[in-house]
Structures are given as structure tokens and as C-alpha cells.
Amino acid sequence: METSRSSYPPVTVTARLDTPLSRWLWLVKWLLVIPHWIVLIFLWIAFLIVTVIAFFAILFTERYPRPLFDFNLGVLRWAWRVSYYSYSALGTDRYPPFSLGPEPDYPARLDIAYPERLSRGLVLVKWWLLAIPHYLVIAIFAGGMRASWWSGGLITLLTLFAAIALAFTGRYPRDLFVLVVGLNRWVFRVAAYAGLMTDAYPPFRLDQGGEEPAEKLWAADGR
């Protein structure tokens, strides 16, 4: 089965809703994630520095140095796990690990295919010019920036609704979960593109659910 038309292969953002979730733990997660936010402040500074170095490397060699790529991928993974645990999803009560690695057993996962070659021309414009339409969209989704990548906006509002439903019913509304993950997926796709980690332009499409579209089609095809 052909999957390329309805998937975004370079970036995969997946999540599994943990059940049961605590009715009230979300009230103190802001306190529990403070150590992560402190670390992520420094990791995001390093992310920006590494991206600048990668910019020149791509400009002269058409390659993103693999150690630098793996580091920035690790920062995005860390940020997604903390966001998923806290107020960008509240999809798990499992405390996120202090790790830049893939952590395959954690319910929130992110991966980016390493590009063997990147365009010298695109590296000059994609992060500030080509990504502007996406910046306008995710500003509505995400609001402002914080240590765990984004805060505020539609994502936080929907997560608050989920928290209230959890408190009163003990259940995370499934439709709300798939929407929240889809919005976060859009944000991280743009982050990878703006971070020069792929030349594939992010689609203007809300892919909802815990799995990427390619994974759903793969499963439906029986492979």
C-alpha cells in the first residue's frame, strides 16, 4: 500500500494514553517537572548553538553532522516526553526520564530520520521565511515558549479540559486525546524543520491520534 501521500516520513511523533491516570496528580505536576524545566533551559540554549553550527556545516558540506543531529534529536525527544507528562497533554503519570536517548518504553516517543544530504539553498530560507506560515499556525496552538518547548494557547486550554474531565470522571476523553496529540505533532514537525533537521516541508494537516498516519496505514495493510 502506498503511504507517502498521507504521511510525513522524516518526523514521527507518537503517544500512548496511559490508563488509569490519577485524578489529581496533574495539580502538582508543575512542581514535579521543575527539575526538567531547569535542564531544558540549558538544553534549548545548546540546541540553538548546535543549530547555528549545523547551518554552516550544511551550507558548506550539504550534511548535518551526525553527532550534532543526534544531540538536537535528543533535545526534542526530551521536550516531547516532558510536554506529554505535563501540561501539553497530561497523557501519562509516568515520570519522564532524564535522557536524550529514544527511551522506547516511554509512552511518548519522537524520531527523525537522519538526512544523508540537505539543500544548501533551503538552509538559507526555510527556518525564517518558508516556515512563517507554520509559525502563525502554531502560535495559535501553542502560545508562547517555555522550557518544555511551548506553553499556552489551544493545546494548554484543551489539556485543561482534559484535566477537569479526569478529575470528575477518572477518564481522559479519547477524542480530546487524539486532538491534543495531533496539535503537538504539528508543533514538533515544525520544530524539526526550523531546526534544519529535514528538508521535507511540514504538511498543513492535523494528523490526530497517538500513531503517525504511516503507522496506521502499515497496520491496516497487514504488514
From TrEMBL:
InterPro entries: DUF4389. Keywords: Membrane, Transmembrane, Transmembrane helix. It comes from the Bacteria. Pfam families: DUF4389. The chain crosses the membrane at residues 34-60, 124-143, 149-169, 176-196. This is DUF4389 domain-containing protein. It comes from Streptomyces narbonensis.
